[in-house]
Please model this.
Amino acid sequence: MNTQLNRVWTAAAVGLLAVIGMTGAAAASSPTAAVSAVSGVMTGVLSGVSFDTPDQLIFKDGRIISGKVLEETETQVRFLVVVAGISGEQTYNKADILAIERGEVGDEVEATTTPARGGVDHPDNPIAADTADENAPGVYVLELTGKFGRDIAPTPIRNTIKDIAKYRPEYVIVVMDNTWETARGDERPDFAAEFDQFRITEEIEPILTKELPEILGYNPKVVVWVKTAMGGAAFLPLNFDTVYFSSDGKMGGIGNLTELFGSTGTAIVREKQFSLRMGRARGMAVRGGYDTKIVTAMARVGYVLSYRIERGKAVLVEAMPNSDLGEFLLTDNGEGENADSVRALARGEGNDVLTLDAKIAGILGVSKGQVDELDDLLYELEIERSHKVIEGKSKRLMERWGGELVSAERSLRDLWKQVGEIQVQGEYRERQAARARQMQIITKIILILEKYDEVYKVRLLKIPDGLPPVTQLEIMHEQLRQDQMKDRP
Amino acid sequence: MKIKGIMQRLTGVIAGLTLVSVMLLATTGNAWAEDKVYLKDGRVLEGEIIREVNGSVWITYSIGGVEQKGAFFASGLIDRIERDATGDLPPSESLQAAKASTTKVSPRKPGEHRGVVITLEGMVGMQFSATPLEELIPWLEEQDVDVVVFKIKSGGGYALEVPILHDLLYNEYKPRFRTVAWIETAISAAAMTSHILEEIYFMPEGNYGACTMWSGALQQSDEYSTEKVIMMMEKVSAKANHPEAIMRSMQLGYPLSCNQNQNGDFTWYNSDEGEFLVNPKDRILTFDSEQAARFKFSKGTADNLDELTKLLGYPEVNWLGEHVAGEIFPISKAELEMREWRKGITTAEEKFQTYFVKYNMSIGNAQSAQDITERGMFVGQARRHLAVIKRAVKKFPIFALLRNLTPEWFAEQQEMLRDLMRQP
Model:
């Protein structure tokens, strides 16, 4: 930047000196002399001033002025204006300026301050600031409640990690408690399954495992507390090495992998589809440090898995249990008389696929313990005596998202109804106005669908009957536009 | 008109997509982008954004056939902007800054190793394509890069792109740079592409395989096509020193097992005769990172760039690019270019059908117009839509291949539009 400024000053000085008939290496190469010379042209008009890459002032009214920024304060910009090779200096109010574009990117580094971990330096963190023990580890609790893929979606979680980053906690406790119900709101049984919701987890998991540490500059301890982790939500805890269960916690609802495609296509291609999905699911288990056999048993009917305890740890065996070795069955092959009976399913005792409860999760090493209160969890984490629970905005942010969705759904209903009600008829102007109104409303609908695409694409956004997809809406818009062009008074 | 009527008409338009046969007056090659600026007052301006600063835009657009050049709209008036993926838009300021920051080559320090991480994501043949990769080579050479890490996250794609990528990686990248793959997800065509590289590293959640070729409703490709690809991958495995048996189990339902000798080396079998059964019969193999490391298919597992640097055997690597919050590696100009490519082709892919429908609608309207002025208006519009399609195809040639949009097809369309205007 300095080099560039010197070049500009030199160029400006040379131009000035040329006009006033003074030339000399000393004057031209001296920044001080150059500044003096440039200052001397404040009201004058000069020629011969040029820049390889001029700066530009872009005004809010659309005007653009090229030249060189000479000085910039908080409120004003002193600028060497160059128009058709003629230059003059002017001072502009920044309030009128949209942007200042530099001819060359400088080496300036934005000053940043990093608050200390635990949030003690954060001005918006009264709890952290007021705490008696400033060294106590900060604990941020993120509650994930509601429908997975709808209420629990990437955008609100991404918004929340920005809030987490403000407080720089040592611990982030993710409470996984998703609603496991049908579209009508009825509770779903454990054997119901949504394996393909793993894609939602694939979008959420990196926010917590990659984006958050990168923003913070360190790895907070992420602890997952499973209350209900069913369907795609079951994959999320697998990515973390520290998981606790509530006493009635359950994790599963992904056992429909081999039923996803029915009898469509050739067996080997269906097998490929199972394989790639299991590859991704196993990858999550590996990231969390769990035996991949567990997730296979959770997902795939026909996979036989037993366990025995050796030196206090579960050893998994891909076979029916050998009672002589003290082995226990987790999942059988689900065939013939091994297929789960309705009675077993109704009691949550099926074993065609594995659903983890607090007990079995503890035996298999997925859960580090049972906790029903936050204090219990803090005790398990050995920070019950020294910690500060951060009152972040996560709950508000997650709720706001849910509210936005409801509002969006209401708008979609109203707008789509309006489109159908508009009659294109009457005089030319009336017809034009009607179509313009339809086009406006269609544009609004598209905007809403695109804004909430992450929920719309997993079919968890309630849309009115007959509302076509975005592509079709765009075509409708184009049709109306062309109808406008064809229509004549 | 009721919306139901519009829908019915649209169905007709879409159904008639391939039945177009019209004409037109000679045209100039109008380079017209289809950017859309949605104003807060509900207006939508369609045209070409020629400049953009801090959310404010200068746009050339037309109202009733009258062109408005470079009209300015302040950011406060704009609700949103929808960009035409086929246009050469002015790059954003952050992109400019990032590009500028990495365009200069600083002198290499003694012992310095330079590396770049480039993500390959999306569908092979579309977002994950040889075209942008080829264009990056001059910049990578200019920067004196030693190591190129391709971070892979793809669920597969078009098999036809795989040999093109093999050729590029093997003949262009490997001789110039130490070229490695870092696997997050490499499924099907993405795994087949990565297979040309000897050095494959995994992320902990990494997965790699499931290479069975199929089309339509989960139908396996015909025997001849399958065999051709098997043969291709045998050669690729040999070139990259990967056991052929592994890829075969990823492609077909062959069992896979192995024995390990005292030196730790493995011997592989497409049967269950080996000591370790890696893939049972009638299953398709997808490696996770543990399996890949255990059986020495991968050179190791790295969760972050520091771990990868160590696995690569360097005490330190100067990873080129800017540190960006939330990103796990520095973002270089090459990576920015790759992201721009993905963004562009994704938008084009989403809009391509719409481009065609708009084009055909304009032709339909031109055909039915009795008045020459009105016809000219619609023909002009059709020309602009055709120009957009042409630009999309030029920038993303895969569309031409997938939709059979040959130069002859474009010439026919131009001729048809000319004929249309010659009619009385």
Chain A touches chain B through 61 residues (CB under 8 Å).
